[in-house]
Design brief:
heterodimer, A: 83 residues, mainly beta, SH3 type barrels, 5-stranded antiparallel beta sheet, 0% helix, disordered N terminus, disordered C terminus, B: 371 residues, alpha/beta, Rossmann fold, 5-stranded parallel beta sheet, 13 strands, 38% helix, 18% strand
């Protein structure tokens, strides 16, 4: 990568500055975390210590390889998009 | 796609824009700050500002950790990276941030072993795979990122990993917001709160904004309809004379945050007495260091660093952009001497920086046409 190129992690984001959380679906539980799938179908191993318990099929908010929220177990009912 | 498509519906977006217009009072100018760089990026990527009435102005906040890291800290990282035997790891966006003389990428080109990682856990893995090398992770980011660093260090300690350490530059979002609210040259009507930071810290840390400064806060998601609805909620509070913290992003953000993440952060980190923010100066208790229990993993104790404060380039007006005092295109070097390819200021380095967002999504061209 040269100085002139964009962030090498992603062409349109930097993960720290974007305060980015990618919503990923748990596809497999392993002994060292969970295998999760992002919206583009790419699988990645994710650390789930901070959001356990986690089950296959649940959607996690993942930042820098670590799940920080379990979107499938929301803390309160979803607010309508229009109000 | 669940949680994506339904929040990008153009019809609903237009309906929200109509409701926003209805909430505004003619003759009043509204200034709403989006705290987070991710919001800035979404606003320009999706053209959200084009849907707003002319009297609703979005002001870009300091929530881009690459943008606020001072050059002296970059120099410290480069000094560590230049040590023989060191593998220096950092997020990709950090590689291009200018220090006083060069970037980490420049240091890499000159022979330093600098590697990009997606997660601090990847840096720890590199340490395991290279037991005869010192592996250093350059940690940056707000409370969204700090838990991953904390978890990594906790794991390194449990494993007894002696060749792993961290240059800790983690910052916290509340102190700079307080500094902005104390700033005499900035009048804001409300805040779009940082959704993913709140996933970790919850909504309560923002109670001081309505409580002490009388400004509404709406914690927001990052999709276009999330942001539009948050603006609507802020304007509605203003019209109704209310002032409180509301949570638009309830589908993700719990009121109390992620208690496990807060617990591990409290174990691994301690507050620094003060820390320099680019453009904002020194802000007390605004950044994290490693706690005494984790001091053995502190790269600043393991390696000598210059630890020198470096003034920003005179031509660069990132400080005023970060405080929302000027728009990016009003900076003297925007789009001329300072571009994403040859950035002078940090706001042009990160795609989430306000300058890069303006530049990449056509605002530069539009402003020129308007002139």
């Amino acid at each position: 990568m040269t100085t002139g190129q964009r962030c090498a992690t992603d062409d349109v984001h930097c993960i720290t500055c974007s305060d980015e959380g990618i919503e990923m679906t748990v596809v497999e539980m392993t002994q060292c975390g969970a295998q999760c799938r992002d919206p583009e179908g790419i699988d990645q191993r994710v650390e789930v210590d901070l959001v356990e318990p986690v089950a296959i099929g649940e959607v996690l908010l993942v930042h820098a390889g670590v799940a920080i929220a379990n979107v499938s177990r929301p803390p309160a009912p979803n607010q309508p998009v229009t109000s | 796609m669940k949680f994506v498509d339904e929040y990008r519906d153009p019809e609903l977006g237009r309906a929200l824009a109509t409701q926003i217009l209805a909430e505004t009072e003619p003759g009043r100018h509204y200034k709403v700050m989006e705290v987070c760089g991710g919001h800035t990026h979404s606003i320009y990527k999706y053209g959200i500002d084009d849907l707003l009435p002319p009297n609703v102005e979005l002001v870009h906040g300091p929530g881009c950790p690459v943008c606020v890291i001072p050059m002296g800290r970059v120099d410290d990282g480069i000094a560590v990276a230049r040590n023989d035997g060191v593998i220096f790891t950092c997020f990709g966006d950090m590689l291009r941030v200018p220090g006083s003389k060069q970037t980490l990428l420049d240091a890499k080109a000159e022979g330093a072993d600098v590697r990009m990682v997606y997660s601090p856990l990847d840096a720890l893995r590199i340490a395991r795979e290279n037991p005869d090398r010192e592996v250093v992770f350059f940690a940056i980011g707000f409370e969204t990122t700090a838990p991953s660093t904390a978890l990594t260090l906790k794991r390194a300690k449990a494993e007894g990993q002696t060749n792993f350490s961290c240059v800790c530059n983690h910052v916290t979002i509340v102190p700079p917001l307080r500094a902005l609210l104390e700033s005499p040259d900035l009048r804001l009507d409300g805040f779009i709160g940082p959704g993913h930071v709140c996933t970790v810290v919850g909504a309560r840390p923002f109670d001081f904004i309505p409580g002490e400064y009388g400004r509404p806060v709406v914690i927001s998601g990052f999709e276009p309809l999330d942001i539009l609805q948050s603006i609507l909620m802020i304007l509605r509070q203003l019209r109704e004379g209310r002032c409180e913290v509301e949570n638009q992003y309830k589908r993700v953000v719990p009121q109390d945050g992620n208690l496990k993440a807060l617990e591990v952060m409290a174990e691994v980190f301690a507050l620094r007495p003060h820390f320099e923010w680019r453009g904002l100066g020194f802000i007390s208790q605004s950044a994290l260091r490693l706690s005494d229990e984790y001091a053995e993993f502190d790269a600043e104790r393991r390696f000598a660093t210059p630890n020198v404060r470096v003034a920003d380039p005179k031509a660069c007006q990132c400080g005023e952009v970060l405080k929302g005092v000027i728009k990016p295109w009003e900076c003297k070097v925007f789009g001329t001497a300072c571009t994403p390819e040859h950035a002078i200021g940090t706001c042009m380095v990160s795609p989430e920086g306000a300058c890069a967002a303006y530049y990449n999504f056509g605002r530069y061209q539009r402003q020129r046409e308007a002139v």
